[in-house]
Design goal:
The structure holds 3 protein chains of 3 kinds. By secondary structure, chain A is an alpha+beta fold. Chain A has one domain (32-168): 3-layer Sandwich (Rieske Iron-sulfur Protein). Helix content of chain A is 19%, strand content 23%. The longest helix of chain A is centred in the first third of the chain and has 21 residues, at 2-22. By secondary structure, chain B is mostly helical. Chain B is built from 16 helices and 2 strands. Chain B has a two-stranded antiparallel sheet with strand order 1-2. Chain C has a domain at 15-142 and 170-190: Cytochrome c-like domain (Cytochrome Bc1 Complex, Chain D, domain 2), CATH 1.10.760.10. Helix content of chain C is 48%, strand content 11%. In chain C, strand 3 (122-124) and strand 4 (132-134) form a beta hairpin. In chain C, helix 2 packs across helix 8 (171-189) and helix 6 packs antiparallel against helix 8 (171-189). The longest helix of chain C has 30 residues, at 192-221. The model of chain C has no long low-confidence stretch (mean pLDDT 88). Classes of the chains: A alpha+beta, B mainly alpha, C mainly alpha.
């Protein structure tokens, strides 16, 4: 009987715990804010980057220059994971890179340094993203360099194209 | 007098007030000779009171929403009478809390205040350190400045590094897909109710356990051995009035330093309240350099020092950093079982124990310095060495404490 | 040697003045009321058309800086719809359309040195949209609004600033005007600082006496 009542007691506690723990999940309102956003790509010049907000994270939209696209394979030695999944700039579109502006190390926002020139953190800088927090480096396609704190490439959010319009949040 | 006595008798029959006062205050024996290291416990109680009282008052004016939090802090600083004093006392109190806590615990390590039969006292103390770190972290998020937001982001994404459950755990803690107002309001609830309640309970346990086994002394002498006719140890004195009145001048000196900081250096040169925190949280813009407040700097340094993972086990450097960071606090919990020495105090321990303590203290301070600075290769390298030196004194403790030569402990204080 | 530089030296991110190696050093003081009033004057004339002070109230400013009611209402606010208990926004919207930051807490975010140096180190640069650039904050979006006071500066080949044409103020006068302005901004960032720094010494002295009394009590029971 003691065992049975202990089990019943444990079930009661567990039952009470469910609503209290579930209350910590994202609310419906938080989920609603995750809806997709649109961006008109025609106004973005080559080499420029736009930042749009989706689910309250910055999404980087980079219009790659032809030079930058040409440079990407030359960086294969330097990046940890050279495979350019989903096309040359990691998107289904050849010209645009759509990248989550959240460092995969500890969630800082990396900065955009597209210019090809020696930098304090890299003498052979070929353009890309540099995280000011802990010094992680990414190339223009968001691929992570070797030997930096960030473990993986910058994430690519689900997105799709409708003519010149980019839709972030719907794949 | 007679009526008072009969009143006390009436109460004592129902609630043993006199008995407990005697047991814990007027007849509780404490060693007659201790040094300044033994004052930090009393000061910690004072700071705890400061934090509770100023905290309650701040809560009356603070708004725990994403839209209102930052402005409400400025409201406290400007529009509330003496609001600035409450806030600076609270923020300086946080730093003081850690400062005293570190010294209090270092005292414990030096004089073996964790040894049998004081294991539980030490364990409750370690839990209190853990809770204090959580409390400080939660509280730092509340002003909703840039550093609040980004430091919290960095710490919360550590949970995301845990394999398999990490990401959903992070979302569950945040209550949103990113750090947001949902996170702020639950952190507020935890900061003002849950953690302080746990801390009060643990302080009570800490002190009751201490009074059961008796306070230590820098010599490691057992004062219970020799007693006079009344049962008071020959090397002991009643807690009240000797210890209580002894603490009062120390409390005075503490308040001088405390208010000198509150009035003339409340931001502590950016180490107590960091500059970017005077700018409202902006989730699209990371500050140039994310540095923790000084009291987390040593542990943050350890976290950053781990730049490598264990690929064949599928452990990333981020997760390994988290594990070692957690281990740096967890290892303190098991110290009572690592120390095999016959003597308590560092004064009678051998040379290896002394070297180990110096090694630990030096690496802790160096890690603290490095934690407030941006990383470069040399700093990372030194942080890695210091991380090893942080753990070594504990990991090797069972060996060197067992085999090193100790001195004879005297019979009396 | 190199080892110690990289261990104790500063990298760009932690330098007080960003890219600039050395700040002009300036520590604000909020106890000179005349300086604060002059600073308010500079602020009103040169900053207030773009920047708000959205946590500071007019009447607080009036009380702390000892501003006569008529001056406050007629000269400073000069807007019937603004009450003296309102915030010092000079009729600007809450979020600036041109991205000019609110300046209430700016000295606390950047530090006195940074703000002071920033105001001093504008120079002519035709490559910038505004026609000028800044040593502390390269590529700043703010136009060199103080050029009329300071005169225009050029960057010579050594990276030093030289005055190429005179402004309305002599260099010393300009320095002191900027000191007034930073003092005023420092006041705006924390009005309680005046009271705090004035009264702190009495609180500390009280606890010195407290310690002495408690020490004597302790001696009695030692």
């Amino acid at each position: 009987m003691q065992i049975t009542s202990s089990v019943v007691g444990a079930v009661t506690v567990a039952g009470f715990a469910v609503p209290f723990l579930s209350a910590w999940q994202p609310s419906e309102r938080a989920k609603a804010l995750g809806a997709s956003v649109k961006y008109d790509l025609s106004k973005l010049e080559p080499g420029a980057m736009a930042v749009v907000e989706w689910r309250r994270t910055p999404i980087f939209i980079v219009h790659q220059t032809t030079e930058a696209i040409k440079n990407l394979p030359s960086l294969n030695q330097k990046v940890a994971n050279p495979a350019l999944e989903e096309g040359v700039s990691r998107t289904i579109n050849e010209k645009f890179s759509i990248i989550k502006g959240v460092c995969t190390h500890l969630s800082c926002a990396p900065k955009y340094y597209p210019e090809i020139e020696p930098k304090a953190w890299d003498e052979n800088w070929k353009g890309g993203f540099f995280c000011p927090c802990h010094g992680s480096k990414f190339d223009l396609a968001g691929r992570v360099y070797k030997n930096v704190p960030a473990p993986t490439n910058l994430e690519v959010p689900p997105h799709s194209f409708e003519g010149d319009t980019l839709i972030i949040g719907e794949a | 007098m007679a009526s008072k006595n009969s009143l006390m008798t009436w109460i004592d029959r129902r609630l043993p007030v006199t008995e407990n006062l005697e047991r814990h205050l007027t007849k509780h024996p404490v060693p007659s000779k201790v040094n300044f290291f033994y004052l930090f416990g009393a000061l910690l109680m004072v700071v705890f009171m400061i934090q509770v009282i100023t905290g309650i008052w701040l809560m009356m004016f603070y708004t725990n929403t994403e839209e209102g939090a930052f402005a409400s802090v400025e409201y406290i600083m400007r529009d509330v009478e003496y609001g600035w004093l409450m806030r600076y006392m609270h923020s300086t109190g946080a730093s003081a809390f850690f400062f005293l806590m570190y010294f209090h615990m270092f005292r414990g390590l030096l004089y073996g205040s964790y040894q049998k039969p004081k294991e539980l006292v030490w364990l409750f103390g370690c839990f209190l350190l853990f809770l204090l770190m959580a409390e400080g972290f939660l509280g730092y998020v509340l002003p909703w400045g840039q550093m609040s937001y980004w430091a919290a982001n960095v710490i919360l994404s550590l949970f995301g590094a845990i394999p398999f459950i990490g990401e959903s755990l992070q979302v569950w803690i945040q209550g949103d897909y990113v750090l947001s107002g949902a996170t702020l309001s639950r952190f507020f609830a935890l900061h003002v109710v849950v953690v302080p309640l746990l801390m009060i309970a643990l302080v009570v346990f800490h002190i009751f356990a201490l009074h059961e086994v008796g306070a230590g002394n820098p010599e490691g002498v057992d004062i219970e051995k020799y007693r006079d006719k009344t049962g008071m140890p020959l090397d002991g004195k009643p807690f009240h009035p000797y210890k209580t009145f002894g603490a009062l001048p120390a409390i005075g000196i503490f308040f001088i330093v405390f208010f000198a900081i509150v009035y003339y250096a409340p931001t502590g040169g950016g180490y107590f309240i960091e500059k970017p925190n005077f700018e409202e949280a902006n989730f699209l813009k990371t500050p140039e350099h994310i540095a923790p407040v000084w009291y987390y700097a040593p542990f943050y340094s350890i976290l950053r020092a781990v730049t490598f993972g264990i690929p064949f086990l599928g452990i990333t450097s981020k997760f390994l950093g988290f594990i070692i960071f957690a281990a740096s606090i967890a290892i303190l919990f098991i110290v009572p079982w690592l120390d095999r020495s016959k003597v308590q105090s560092i004064r009678y321990k051998g040379i290896f124990s002394k070297i180990a303590m110096i090694m630990f203290a030096t690496s802790f301070i160096t890690l603290g310095y490095l934690g407030t600075k941006p990383v470069n290769e040399i700093r990372t390298f030194i942080a890695q060495i210091c991380t090893v030196f942080y753990f070594l004194p504990f990991l090797l403790m069972p060996i060197y404490t067992k085999y090193e030569k100790t001195l004879e402990v005297p019979d009396r204080l | 040697m190199l080892f110690f530089i990289s261990l104790f030296g500063n990298t760009a991110g932690e330098n007080k003045c960003g890219e600039l190696e050395k700040c002009y050093s300036f520590n604000s003081s909020v106890h000179d009321r005349d300086s604060l009033q002059r600073g308010l004057g500079v602020y009103k004339n040169y900053c207030s058309s773009c920047h708000t002070l959205r946590y500071l109230r007019w009447n607080r400013l009036q009380r702390d800086l000892d501003i006569p009611e008529t001056v406050l209402v007629d000269d400073l606010i000069s807007n019937e719809n603004v009450k003296t208990s309102d915030f010092v926004t000079f009729g600007l919207p809450e979020i600036s359309p041109i991205g000019a930051p609110d300046l209430t807490l700016r000295t606390r975010v950047r530090g006195d040195d940074w703000i002071y140096t920033y105001l001093q180190t504008f120079y002519q640069d035709t490559s910038q949209a505004t026609g000028s650039n800044n040593l502390v904050y390269p590529g700043t979006a703010m136009a060199n609004i103080l050029i009329g006071l300071q005169g225009s500066q050029e960057l010579d080949s050594d990276g030093k600033l030289v005055l190429s044409s005179k402004g309305a103020l002599e260099p010393e006068q300009f320095d002191s005007a900027m000191e007034d302005l930073v003092n005023f901004l420092a006041y705006a960032s924390e009005p309680a600082r005046v009271e705090r720094e004035r009264n702190g010494i009495y609180v500390i002295l009280f606890f010195v006496v407290f310690t002495a009394v408690m020490w004597l009590l302790y001696r009695e029971y030692k």
